[in-house]
Amino acid sequence: MIDTRKDWDTYFMDIAYMVSTRSRCGRRHVGAVLVQGKKLLGTAYNGAPMGMPDCSEAGCMISEEVSLVQVDGEEKMVKKQRCIRTIHAEQNLLLFTDRIDREGSTVYVTDEPCWTCANMLANSGVVEIVFHRSYPKDTDKVTSMLNSKEIIFRQLQLYEPPNETLTSVSN
């Protein structure tokens, strides 16, 4: 008999995408799940703090940052826009799970963690971070830092999210 079940990476990433549908952020819906072995320990998505108006109700609170980066041997200015009304999915996951559960665990997240979230995850006890969509603005420094912490950091490039989780959002 042929096993037609989804592999574990697909199974947990599908759950992360389903969780992301709870987000009301107009820029990006992000979901994260905490897994130890094959056991799901927690889920979270990006959004405003509980009891506060979210971006769909009050609009985004955009903060702009400018940084110098090396591109093809030249320094270039790169502008990042971040919504500061929203707590990221990874941050919510850390807020609503216990440290003991995170020790030795894996985080599946729909989007590559930003620098701040990667720092928090690196200090949380997780040993692996699996993501689907890339976030190129922070990739190099996030990858370098996680490698130096010996945290497995990998992208599911051939993964296809469930159709019902796909939304039209902007970067």
Order of helices and strands: HEEHEEHHEHEHE
Shape assignment: globular
Average predicted local confidence, pLDDT:
91
CATH topology of the domain at 8-48 and 86-156: Cytidine Deaminase, domain 2
Number of helices: 6
Task: Strand order, main sheet: write it out.
Answer: 2-1-5-6-7
- Sheet/helix structural class: alpha/beta
User: Helicity range of the residues?
Assistant: 25-40%
Let me know the CATH homologous superfamily of the domain at 8-48 and 86-156.
Cytidine Deaminase, domain 2
Q: What CATH architecture of the domain at 8-48 and 86-156 do you see?
A: 3-Layer(aba) Sandwich
Per DSSP, what share of the residues sits in E-state strands of 2 or more residues?
Answer: 25-35%
| CATH class descriptor name of the domain at 8-48 and 86-156 | Alpha Beta
- Report the span from N to C terminus: 44 Å
| Low-pLDDT sequence parts | none
The biggest sheet, with number of strands, parallel, antiparallel or mixed sense and barrel status, is: 5 strands, mixed
Q: What is the alpha-carbon Rg in Å? A: 16 Å
- Tell me the number of strands: 7
Family: Belongs to the cytidine and deoxycytidylate deaminase family.
Protein name: CMP deaminase
Pfam families: dCMP_cyt_deam_1 (PF00383)
GO cellular component, one term: cytoplasm
Describe the secondary-structure layout.
Blueprint lengths: L7 H13 L10 E6 L2 E7 L9 H4 L3 E10 L2 E10 L5 H7 L3 H4 L3 E6 L3 H8 L5 E6 L5 H10 L3 E4 L16
Parallel strand pairs: 5-6, 6-7
Antiparallel strand pairs: 1-2, 1-5, 3-4
Helix pairs in contact: 5-6
